[in-house]
């Protein structure tokens, strides 16, 4: 039986990782250090190593500092990603930094499937076979313009968007207003739903804000869907 090689991190190395967390990651109190044994390939053989594991407790995502590798979840292109032949400590620190950036994006991302499930008025109406595609009347287009201004104000309220994000909001809502004159009500509803989902993703809205956005939009345009109005109750 091969002897297990101790490849766990030193106190100094863990302190360096703490600095990286403070720069890139979620709060350091959300993380926990543990150890595990794993097999790694080295010198034409596999060897058992004792390695250090950094786990983000709220999500159970992790970064494994192997003897000759770094394994992260989530990874850049898949949920669990291995970076092999990483023997240099600087490269392991760099891999951890990239993991923390991805982790924070994952943690901050709203669960839009859950949001749509809870605030399902728009998605239910959009998928209804009873919804016709008649053009909006001039009065309806005026109502849409007013309601879009209310929704945009809600979206911007209390948010610290940068210039590019604020311009994105302005452009998307202007597009919705213009498209109401060109699309029928069924097509426009699908455009509206797509724009709202895009806003939630690109602006990284928190779950409460995303739910409020969909709920407000569902209530705002309830009167426009004719025979499927009951679906929006």
Describe this entry's structure for a reader:
Helices cover 49% and strands 17% of the residues. Helix 6 (163-179) packs antiparallel against helix 7. Strands 1, 2, 3, 4, 5 and 6 form a six-stranded mixed β-sheet that branches. The protein has helices at 11-24, 89-108, 112-118, 121-126, 138-156, 163-179, 185-202, 207-220, and strands spanning 5-6, 31-42, 45-56, 61-65, 69-73, 81-84. Residues 227-233 have low confidence and may be disordered. The chain contains eight helices and six strands; from the N terminus they run βαβββββααααααα. The protein has 233 residues and is α+β, with helices and mostly antiparallel strands. The protein folds into two domains: 5-108, no CATH class; 112-232, no CATH class.
List key phrases describing it.
233 residues, alpha+beta, 2 domains, six-stranded mixed beta sheet, 49% helix, 17% strand, elongated
